[in-house]
Automatic annotation (TrEMBL):
Binding positions for a divalent metal cation 2 per the UniProt entry: H128, H152
High-level lineage: Bacteria, Bacillati, Bacillota, Clostridia, Eubacteriales
UniProt keywords, alphabetically: Exonuclease, Hydrolase, Metal-binding, Nuclease
Binding site for a divalent metal cation 1: H6, H8, E92, D202
Protein name per the record: YchF/TatD family DNA exonuclease
Cross-referenced InterPro entries: DNase_TatD-rel_CS, Metal_Hydrolase, TatD-like, TatD/YcfH-like
Length: 256
């Protein structure tokens, strides 16, 4: 049983071999794959993928890189997209001060607008945060009533992770947990409670060892799971059962 809670299968890197990748995923018997949008167009194409394949589910949202283009009209369009039964979250949303492709004030405004949408639609959020941990936490803390979600591909400290856990969020780990220079992540992998941990590939990015440097693939989520199980000293079947429970608990529109 494989579960990938975050992969971008509508990314341009797959445009020439998507069918081949999907067939590989099917052979590995992947149970759940959540495909977040990063803008209106990719949110729509994510839904199209989800409607085509039973195991794929969609999330809709504006990534902080694209926040500068997220007009009120486009946010309203995201709202209508959530009517689709395969839309299980609002995401990928959040803050990115590393690249700052969109001004910080615009990122915050669009982040909060999409949090409001998630609350309105009673959906979890998938949060991107890079070099913006304090502002991300403050916004989530200030909006924490009736809000749930996950910090995707988490890269912060254990101290900050505890604060996210305290306001009800999940922590998701990805390929960097397998990297030799992942100094903070092993502690997090061990200490996050078993009912609050998720795994993902963030394909086509952040490819885990032993395929680091190549285009990522959702089936590589098994290497992430194996590394976490090694650190936690737990059987992989038990761990993957916990991952399944957590995924279905958070993304409660998923029906298997």
């Amino acid at each position: 049983m494989l579960i990938d809670t975050h992969a971008h299968m509508n990314d341009d890197r797959y445009k020439d071999n998507l069918d081949e990748i999907i067939n590989l995923i099917k052979k590995e018997k992947m149970t759940i794959l959540i495909n977040p949008g990063v803008d209106l167009e990719t949110s729509i194409s994510s839904i199209e993928l989800a409607e085509k394949y039973d195991f794929i589910y969609a999330a809709v949202g504006y990534h902080p890189h694209e926040a500068k283009d997220a007009t009120e009209e486009k946010i309203e369009k995201l709202d209508t997209l959530t009517d689709n039964k395969k839309v299980v979250a609002i995401g990928e949303i959040g803050l990115d001060y590393y690249y700052e492709y969109s001004p910080k004030n615009i990122q915050k405004k669009v982040f909060e607008a999409q949090i409001d949408l998630a609350k309105k639609r009673d959906l979890p959020i998938i949060v991107h945060s890079r070099d913006a941990h304090q502002d991300t936490y403050n916004i989530l803390k200030n909006n924490s009533n009736n809000l749930r979600g996950v910090l995707h591909s988490y890269s912060g400290s254990w101290e900050l992770a505890k604060r996210y856990l305290d306001i009800g969020f999940y922590i998701s780990l990805s390929g960097p947990i397998t990297f030799k220079n992942a100094h903070k992540l092993p502690e997090i992998a061990v200490k996050v409670p078993k009912d609050r941990i998720l795994i993902e590939t963030d394909s086509p990015y952040l490819t885990p060892v032993p395929y680091r440097g190549k285009t990522n693939n959702p089936i590589y989520v098994k290497y992430i799971a194996q590394e976490i199980c090694k650190l936690r000293e737990v059987d992989i079947k038990i761990f993957m059962n916990d991952i399944k429970k957590n995924t279905l608990e958070l993304f409660d529109k998923i029906v298997l």
